[in-house]
Specification:
388 residues, FAD/NAD(P)-binding domain, alpha+beta, binds flavin-adenine dinucleotide, nine-stranded mixed sheet, 29% strand
């Protein structure tokens, strides 16, 4: 059977693209080497931060806005909540550079994005932050940008729902089937797996941290980094309402940049713990080689360095950890484009630690790109350099 489109990788981006293609009536085959949602790539750990005032760059704002609309549509269709608007807070010393996801002024750029796109937000000074957020032990210099419409999304649920709906709409999904290679023959593409060679008019590759393996020519453009998520217990159950009802946050207290943390309110009940994490870019890995075990030393270091000084309601008892992978470009910019060497192949590598909030709209944009030749949202900021 020949398909209109094959999608390789059914994680955050591929499940969204497959759903949108099936919705558009396109004959689509989705292939994944694992069984998504799974915990081996970049789309697990229960929650992701979403914010419309995106400090990473103004080109991203239409994507997150459209993603919120799509998730609301999915919620209405399925009766399942994906997006929780609990508010989002970015905190950092106002006068100092805050390096994050390719910008050196993340707090200022967040405020600039809010202003440029008329996103509701409040600027808070150190006294205002201390009065309003007693759960945070501030270093003292921080200013904040609070976006009430920001919040969290459920990544595994979004993947599951989009795949289910895609199948209901006629998509063919094959999981546990690894793509070994592909070729663009000009008039069509072929995709090779251990058991068959599939023909399609076009191919979308959304392989997350496996991108270097699936598209070797893009290997020099990305590095893969191990990230650890921690869920810490409360010291005292009486603190639960305080830790349950706050915003998601991205917080650089202003000392060593490695003390930057981000976290979530305790949306999964007192037994679920408070999810806190930080980012690391020093150690490069691959999905095959990554150490998926989190050592007691890592937990203790995280607690002593980042949690105990800043989140006094949390104890050192770590209820759970998870290892997840960032696929990072040099400037943290997404890559979404046709492959210059294979124009029937569209690649999307939107991670660098900030992709999930845009995933539903990226799926729609990928579907538009292969069906009508252009995406309604301008993706030119994410173009690959021309071949040669
Ligand atoms: C710890 C962590 C925290 C994050 N926090 C946030 C956040 O708060 N907010 C935010 O917006 N973003 C965040 N992100 C980024 C976001 O989660 C990612 O951008 C997004 O999940 C990437 O999705 P993906 O579809 O590209 O990759 P994945 O979901 O990993 O999907 C890739 C899929 O391709 C499949 N595959 C790979 N190779 C093959 C092959 N050869 N054949 C067939 N299938 C294949 C894999 O099995 C996998 O299912 C975070 C990421 C991590 C790791």
């Amino acid at each position: 059977m020949r398909y209109d489109v094959v999608v390789v990788g059914l994680g955050a981006m591929g499940s969204a693209a497959t759903y949108q293609l099936a919705k558009a009536g396109v004959r689509v085959l989705g292939l994944d080497r694992h069984r998504p949602p799974h915990n081996l790539g970049s789309t697990h750990g229960d929650t992701r931060i979403t914010r419309v005032a995106v400090g990473e760059g103004l080109a991203y704002v239409p994507l997150v806005r459209r993603s919120h609309e799509i998730w609301r549509e999915l919620e209405q269709q399925t009766g399942t909540q994906i997006l929780t608007r609990c508010g989002g807070l970015v905190l950092a010393p106002a006068a100092r550079g805050f390096d994050m996801h390719g910008t050196s002024s993340f707090l200022a750029d967040t405020v600039a994005a809010a202003q440029a796109y008329d996103v509701e937000h409040q600027a808070l000074d150190p006294a205002g932050l201390a009065a309003r957020f007693p759960q945070f032990a501030l270093a003292g210099e921080e200013h904040g940008c609070l976006e009430p419409g920001a919040g969290l999304v459920r990544p595994e649920l979004a993947v599951e729902l989009q795949l289910r709906l895609a199948r209901d709409l006629g998509a063919t999904l094959a999981t546990g089937e690894q793509v070994l290679g592909f070729a663009d023959h000009g008039s069509h593409v072929t995709v090779r797996t251990p058991t068959r060679t599939v023909e399609a008019a076009q191919l979308i590759v959304t392989a997350g941290p496996w991108l270097p393996e699936v598209v070797p020519e893009l290997a020099p453009a990305v590095t893969i980094h191990r990230q650890v998520l921690f869920w810490f217990d409360l010291r005292d159950p009486a603190s639960y309402p305080l830790m349950r009802n706050g915003p998601v946050y991205i917080w650089w207290p202003g000392g060593d940049p490695s003390e930057m943390i981000y976290g979530f309110p305790m949306v999964d009940g007192p037994a679920g713990g408070a999810k806190v994490a930080r980012e690391q870019y020093d150690v490069v890995t691959t999905p095959d080689e990554v150490d998926r075990v989190v050592g007691a030393d890592e937990i203790e270091e995280m607690y002593e360095r980042c949690v105990r000084p800043r989140l006094p309601a949390l104890s050192g008892r770590c209820l759970r950890t998870a290892v997840c992978l960032y696929t990072v470009t040099e400037d943290s910019r997404f890559l979404i484009d046709r492959l210059p060497s294979a124009p029937n192949v569209v690649v999307a590598s939107p991670c660098s630690g900030h992709g999930f909030k845009h995933s539903a709209a990226i799926g729609e944009s990928l579907a538009q790109l292969v069906t009508s030749g252009a995406s309604a949202i301008d993706l030119s900021a994410f173009a690959l350099p021309p071949a040669g």
